[in-house]
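hey so i finally got around to running both of the ones u sent me last week. sorry it took forever, my laptop kept dying halfway thru and i had to restart like 3 times lol. anyway pasting them below in the order u listed, first the sequence line then the structure token line for each. didnt double check formatting much so if smth looks off just lmk and ill redo it

first one:
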Amino acid sequence: MTEVQKVITRLKDTRRLDARQYRQLLVADSPADSRLLQSQARSASLSRFGNRIFIRGLIEISNHCRNNCLYCGIRAGNTALRRYRLSKEEIMECCARGYALGFRTFVLQGGEDAAFSVGVLESLVRGIKASWPDCAVTLSLGEMSEDSYRTLRAAGADRYLLRHETFNPEHYASLHPADMSRDGRLECIAALQRLGYQTGTGIMVGSPRQTLDNIVEDLLYIQELKPQMIGIGPFIHHRDTPFRDMPDGSVDMTVRLISIFRLMNPGALIPATTALVTLDPEGRKKGILAGANVVMPNLSPASRRRDYSLYEGKASGGAEAAEGLEELRRELQSIGYDIVTDRGDFCGAGTFEN
């Protein structure tokens, strides 16, 4: 057994490593070591969830954002973007269509848009939960006050995804405007956990100026945080941002990190993201075979999907769309997995039983 294989076994058995050991996994270049990492992660996912892949209906409610993050296509400073925000009626129509298709989790995602005040969002969440009480509501709407998060939790929101993007404060500052801080982002994530949300965080893989040491810091942070959801995807440039000429992130490194996170946190909900498919047509399959167990087809109105332009060339059709659910089902069945239509909650203990 190689030294790297011993580290993989240690991670599987103990769910934690030190910085040196995580770095060993990130730089390992042996095909045999990579195969073992992936197979152990896939086994860990299968033991908790079986061959079930959970679907989430993604509704991109607004591409207005007050922030000016340097990497993001919907940044406040992008004057070339056609802006939109969905009405409550449009959002409820998306949910109704999704429910009929079998979705039992709705993910409301958007920029930090002042028009979606906490009062508006509270009414929206209550309306969704009243109409479809067997469904989970996940929010991914950026930084808010703890009181706002508390209000939305009381309204019925079940989960909140807020990627920290990078744990290193200097790297964080290089990606964001001066009025945003790493500490502020981490405090929001801590508040979400205190309030009882199923909490998700994650990183961009290959973001500008990211080093391996930065990724190791992210791994150690998430190891201690123990989130219920881990969302990671490769950085992809956008032509209307300061990072327009920066190289895109690595699909292979993203897939490797999915496997590491699966062994670290066997019960977590880990998506195979749209960004993976944008860079590699086989990206979703690669992510799932590496341990991912969630996919998020787009329920947003078709006329708006291209306007939610976080990065260049964002995939929005075919199996990425709600209307392509049967195509997605066939794709997953080709690698031995099935779509399931339950809420698909975090599985903190025990094993999957059929």
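and the second one:
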Amino acid sequence: MNDFEIIMASITGADKPGLTSSLAAIIAKYGATILDIGQADIHSSLSLGIMFKSDKASSGTILKEMLFKSSELGVQIRFSPISVEEYNHWVGLQGKNRYIVTLLGRNISASLIADVAKVLAEQNLNIDSITRLTGRVPLVEDEALHGKTRACVEMSVRGTPKDKPLLHSEFMRLSQERGYDISFQEDNLYRRNRRLICFDMDSTLIQTEVIDELAMRAGVGDEVKAITESAMRGEIDFCESFKRRVSLLKGLDESVMKEIAESLPITEGVARTLKILKQYGYKIAILSGGFTYFGEYLKEKFGIDYVYANELEIVDGKLTGNYVGDIVDGKRKADLLRLIAQSERLNLQQVIAVGDGANDLPMLNLAGLGIAYHAKPKVKQNAQQSISSIGIDGVLYMLGFKDSYIQQ
């Protein structure tokens, strides 16, 4: 027969300063031990749970004083006895795997949360907490932000999935049907300690393929665009497609590159994402199958640390239709990611890679976190994670950044 009791106190009501302190002080006064405590506050509505162990002689007095104090503070309190078996089972769960599920979109629907929670339950995964990472959604959308709002909810879940491939396929199905992004990541030390992010450039940091822009000015736009799209879908070898496209640019004036660079369409969320990542000490790299000239332009604009891309050969102010050095293809991107990580003395699990094309898959799958951004179906299916519903600042939410903690 135990000479102690385990009690769960559940407190709800309007939050106010000093509430947690007052209730904890009562428990402390009688020498009881707090075994667990958790608190959430939604629009000033409090939900506080305190599990404590008390000797049987004191427990009745503790409950009475907590009840009176709660009444005085204007909140409701409910007590539930916890058996030793229940408590030991709960302790045993601490060794279970933990995962983070991130829901991204322009808004988050109740039906999406219901469906995601159902998939998790079917996989024997328990939701420990749900947190909103984005700012509160306005009732009336600001015209200036029309179509640019962001909504993100993060779930912390625990357990071992019964069938992880099935879980991923279910989340992919929901993403495609609902137009949301659903990320499932292991919640480990590396997730909180990533320090290098490598971006593709064309159709990732910028909303165009620069080689298509150059080709239009050279009068071979349709021909080059067709080769580009085929290469991005993985239908043609990247190196071969690159050589064919570059050869079609022969004779183009060098000054055209400056015009294009100064009018590059920057992807939604890029300035915010790069600024915040720099503030938090991340190293940033561009690993691109595009061209160094434009990568260097973005480097100066956003303070990027590394740029590796392809160098166009220029003679007497004209493009020759040739290139200088090795082609940065998919394999080369992965090699460069590994090289930069080694230079920065980082484990590959501390590296993030973001890209949209088939030639990005080697680096997306090498990095600890690989994100396909507004990518082709083949790329999304083969990448670890994907973002298609919002801007590139969705990367921040996958890393666990919360709007209220970062500068906008």
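quick thing i noticed on the 2nd:
Residues 56-73 form the longest helix (18 residues).
anyway thats it, ttyl
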